[in-house]
Write a structure and sequence with these properties.
12 helices, about 280 residues, globular, mainly alpha
Length: about 280
Amino acid sequence: MRQTQVLRPASLSARALWDDLARLVSYRDLFITMLQHRIRVRYRQSALGYIWAVLQPVMMVAIYSVVFALLARVPTGNTPYVVFAFSALVPWLYFSNGLLLATNGLVSNASLVLKVYFPRELLPLSYIGAAFVDFCIGCAVLALAMAIYGVRPHATLVWIFPLMGVATIFLIGTSLLCSAVEVKYRDVGLAMPFLIQLWLFATPVLYPLHAVPARLQPFYTLNPMVAVVDGFRSALVLGSPPDLQLLARAFWISVVLLVFSYAWFKRSEVTFADEI
């Protein structure tokens, strides 16, 4: 007899969310299958294939180096601007590409959502996993750039693991919220590329954090990616640990957002098939 899954509005209790997480873990094989599919098909019909994962950050760094290093002359101390910008662009691209793809994850897989039951959060999560693969490729290119410019990594690079943990928590929370809203309001997906561009300039990727006026920093640093990007660059290239106060603030903001977004996502899940 075929098993039937009845979807009802999720409870906002801690026990209900825990049960949802347990159900999500039980579908881990499906997540791996989806992730492998994302990785295989992402560049399948392109002539350059996986080289695009390398070209994207390289071309962006080349353009920004001309604008900000040669024309605007952004101060980077003794660090070559290419390495300065590249070391922040790698974690930023993980976040921005993951968010852009995951936001449209439900809508672009509407036929799958309509035909079979599975925890819907697997779709945006699979896109985030694919973005993480690109992040690993970007890290390899960054290591090559550091070797070319004679910039040695420091022992503080161990901080990149908790930093990327915070980035992933924030990315998942943001993606779940945006993908759920995108089902009802397609404007979110249309506006996302523009919003990500604005977010880039509101994050110290192309300039140092100390360039932001002190009076604006209490508001500016509410963006968790500020702590991630600045901390990643400091730990890997500059040889100093991240600002622990900024990192702690980013962590708690990300955790609160994730809990809220997951509860909202599960609450909205029952209407996805009707609205998608």
